[in-house]
Amino acid sequence: MLQLNPDLSDLVSDAAAGLAERFSSKATITAAAPGRVNLIGEHIDYCDGFVMPFAIDRYIVIAGCANGSTQARISTAHSEETVILDLSQLQETGEPIWANYLRGVIRGFQDRGHHIPGFDAFILSSVPGGAGLSSSAALECATATFLEGLLDTVLDTREKALLCQKAEHDFAHVPCGIMDQFASAFGKPNRLVLVDCQTGEPELVPFENPDFTVLISNTMVHHELSDGGYAARRKHTEDGLAILGKASWRDVSNADVEANWEKLGNPINRRARHVVGEIARTIAAAAALARNDFETLGPLMAASHNSLRDDFEVSCKELDTMVGIARTMGRDGGVIGTRMTGGGFGGSTVTLCESRKSAEIAATLATEYEKATGITPQIFASRPSQGAHLVD
Ligand code: GLA
């Protein structure tokens, strides 16, 4: 029931084998970048809030080499197709759509004055797509890291994450915040990436107590952030801030939201209540973790989920079902906290639980979820892992 995470070293050798098979090329550069899961701090990275994700041990790997031409030839395990990009031109969006993540990142390097030499690349992934685990940020960060290898240059990590975020904005048309790219770029083993999104400063927070495990439950309901729901939520928060006449959500209190409830109007007042509440919950969660107090996270995660469901309206019935099953097991069953994670509208839940009961909890989540929905979920555990890097 509990899926194992494929070994990164296996992905790396399979990607090299894919490159050899498709292009008869030998991999000289291999980049890996992880997906992420967010413990708490949802839909507030674009509101100057705090987020607390970590890099999961699921990766996108790009194996490749220079090919002496002015073209990129890119292939994946998912299709026989080879995407050709003309690197003598500034990159623009095009077909197939998934290659826009690569085009956007290449464009970011071109805009910084880099000339990108031709290359062959083969891409493999163990990050489930559309699962709210940032497979797109992983692809962007893997591409950026691959280009660093190809160009024999190293970008400042923060600049690299921002370049990748811009690729997502301009080439995937998702007005995302910075959480996903920061988690994928800055992630470290046994560390959470706590980001103050007002200052843009990440802090690596220890998360290494072996008594606790993080389970990720993919509802298998596909989430698509480019279909407008995400952008609409972001717009609500911008409108709310303008109505409140404040420069930053960090300057807004609960009392401000209450006092302006009618003026904000529905649904912006509820969106505002989520933002202010979630910022406070994330600060409280970070403080609790700093004193190794995991139990406090439970009620904070519960309140976060309820707020995302009722006020921010980004949950869905399958996410609520998965959360409901974990809640029913409760603290006595080893569950400390559970909530939806990521952009929502489908995707995954994150469940913090006692390690000794995690296999049992995963089995119950899988069985009960399938009984309730008819869908077989994908459930795996993850520890905080190494962010984007070149593999030797
Ligand atoms: C997506 C976005 C992030 C963040 C989350 C919600 O993953 O890419 O920037 O806004 O949704 O917390």
Query: How many β-strand runs?
Result: 14
Q: For the report, how would you describe the main beta sheet?
A: 6 strands, mixed
**Neighbour order of strands in the largest sheet:** 6-5-7-4-2-14
Q: Spell out the helices and strands N to C.
A: EHEEEEEHEHHHEEEHHHHHHEEHEE
- Helix segment tally: 12
Task: Give short descriptive properties of this protein.
globular, 12 helices, binds alpha-D-galactopyranose, five-stranded mixed sheet, six-stranded mixed sheet, 392 residues
Could you describe the 3D structure shown?
The chain is an alpha+beta fold. The chain contains twelve helices and 14 strands. The chain has a six-stranded mixed β-sheet. It has a five-stranded mixed β-sheet with strand order 1-13-10-12-11. The protein has a three-stranded antiparallel β-sheet with strand order 3-8-9, with helices on both faces. Helix 6 packs across helix 9 (268-290), helix 9 (268-290) packs antiparallel against helix 10 and helix 11 (317-329) crosses helix 12. The longest helix is centred in the last third of the chain and has 23 residues, at 268-290. The chain is globular and about 60 Å long. The relative contact order is 0.18. Alpha-D-galactopyranose (GLA) binds next to helix 5. Alpha-D-galactopyranose is lined by residues 42-43, 45-46, 134, 176-177, 179-180, 342-343.
